[in-house]
Amino acid sequence: MQAMRTRHFGFFITYSLIIGCTAETAIKPEVLDERTGITVAALQEPIEMVQLGTLTFGQRASFAYFGPVEWNRTGVTQFGLWVHVAPGNDQPIGDIHEAAAVALVIDNKPVPLTLIEVPPLEKQPYEPKVSWGQSAYFGLSSATLIRLGDSRKIELQFRGRNIQTVRFIESHDNRAVLAEYARARHAVP
Questions:
Q1: Mean of the pLDDT values across residues 53-66?
Q2: Which residues contact 24 (CB under 8 A, 6 or more apart)?
Q3: Residue 99 backbone phi and psi in degrees, to 5
């Protein structure tokens, strides 16, 4: 009887470890770009944002997406923020590559964003959601990554073609995902 309990306990521990190792995580496994030697860490899926405001009948809402990225080249780490905007037919967005065209707002406090050049990888960490959208990478400090993980409210703002601001808020709560990413990237105080 004792041997049977031990065998069942051993099976339970092994099963638990297998399930724990294969559990769904919001973070992609790190990927090594063999051509450049850069290791890339990103989320499985970018964070979805929906346009704030009301739409009239027959109009499609605009969406925006963002995702943190870590590029690690032999211990030298750089963080970035991938941003993609997918305008509907209600309010066109200006060029997100222009200075001050995109603003990140964390808990009602604006965070300045600066465009960055990304390493020329064979495969980028995020794919555009729609072909007519615009994508860009912005610099991200570890302190801002921590703020994203600790945030209660995140907003992206884009300058529209008519200079009017188009605002996007999270379509659902992503605090746990962003906090997990910040912890995994060791961007914690």
A1: 73
A2: none
A3: -60, 135
